[in-house]
Amino acid sequence: MTPDEKFSHYVKLSLIGFVLIFVYYLIADIYLPVTPQARVYHPVVQISPQINGRVTKVLVSNNQRVKAGDVLFNIDQGPYSLAFEQAQLMLDDAKLQNKRLDTNVKAIEANISAAKAKQHEQQLLKNRGEKLYQQNSISEQALESIRANFEASKASEAALEAQLAEAVLARGELGKENLAMRHAGNTLAQAELNLSYTQVRALSDGIVTNLQLLDGAYAVAGKPLLAIVAKKADLVADFREKSLLNMKEGSLAKVVFDSRPGEVYDAKILTFEAGVSNGQLSANGLLSTTETSNRWVRDAQRQRIHLKLIDDATLITNMPSGARATVQLLPESTIGQWFGAAQIRFISWLHYIY
């Protein structure tokens, strides 16, 4: 075979190999989809104080493991201790004021009893005066004076009854249902709650990360000061839409992690993401924006799926958030699963190189 014939032979073999690889790629992209766009994500809890104040003591260090309820840092208690004491004084003042009102009610009730006795006396004098007037024993002027005194006693009792009603209204309900006591108690509870907020605690188990907080910093309510990476983890992978054509929830998959080259883990599809940010429309009052592209063939849209490791579900909980992985989805056919397993095994060996 001449050199030209050898060259032509090699070119033909190369073209055949290229065509075979291209055809395999087209078939595998639909029936044996694989993606390097996979990561391990941990929920990140941003810790924000619920009150304003100076940070007096940071009690954790960077990358420290914490449990729910652990104190992370303290905020100056001074202003909130004073507010708590003031609220207690308000509650004590409300109790004292209620005692004064109770005393006033009892005093008015005593005056009403005296007024009733006075009215009864005036009633008897009036009846006696009317009999004496009929007997011409007293003058009409004396009778009118007796009647006036009787009416005055009635008016005095009515005035005291009105004062009693007003005093009872000012006193309000008795016991814990009293309005003034409820206001004071609510203020005290809020002050006590704010005082408890001076100790900022972890809301979940996790690891404190990227800690920049130092003693003396000023905390603003609602502004995050540190973050905790939760222990719970989620394995997600992004595939082109057509690659998911033959896949469904429960379909088998194999996963290779960059941090564990050469190791292949069995997994299954847990859920499909409902959408991506590009498909989100917001009611912002603006006109619609059309998509534009200068390319003849636009980039394929990727969709996200969530996976679960079958044999070692807790493996990813110990991995850092953002750990990279490669995911191979498997078809239902036995031969397809064999090719998929071989493909991901080859990729796992490549992780020793890159």
Structure notes:
It is a single chain. The protein has 354 residues and is of the alpha+beta class. The protein has 3 domains: 28-43 and 232-275 and 301-354, Elongation Factor Tu (Ef-tu), domain 3; 45-75 and 199-230, RNA polymerase II/Efflux pump adaptor protein, barrel-sandwich hybrid domain (OB fold (Dihydrolipoamide Acetyltransferase, E2P), Beta Barrel), CATH 2.40.50.100; 79-194. The chain is 43% helix and 21% strand. The chain has helices spanning 3-31, 78-134, 140-171, 179-196, 334-350, and strands at residues 34-41, 44-47, 53-58, 65-66, 71-75, 199-201, 206-209, 218-219, 226-230, 234-240, 252-257, 265-272, 302-309, 324-329. The strands form 3 sheets. Strands 1-10-13-12-11-14 form a 6-stranded antiparallel barrel. Strands 2-9-7-4 form a 4-stranded antiparallel beta sheet, with no helix packed on it. Helix 2 packs antiparallel against helix 3 (140-171) and helix 2 packs antiparallel against helix 4 (179-196). The radius of gyration is 43 Å and the shape is elongated. The chain starts with a helix and ends with a helix. 16% of the residues are buried.
Short description:
The protein has about 350 residues and is of the alpha+beta class. The protein has five helices and 14 strands.
Draw up the topology in text.
Blueprint: H1 3-31, E1 34-41, E2 44-47, E3 53-58, E4 65-66, E5 71-75, H2 78-134, H3 140-171, H4 179-196, E6 199-201, E7 206-209, E8 218-219, E9 226-230, E10 234-240, E11 252-257, E12 265-272, E13 302-309, E14 324-329, H5 334-350
Antiparallel strand pairs: 1-10, 1-14, 2-9, 3-5, 3-8, 4-7, 5-6, 7-9, 10-13, 11-12, 11-14, 12-13
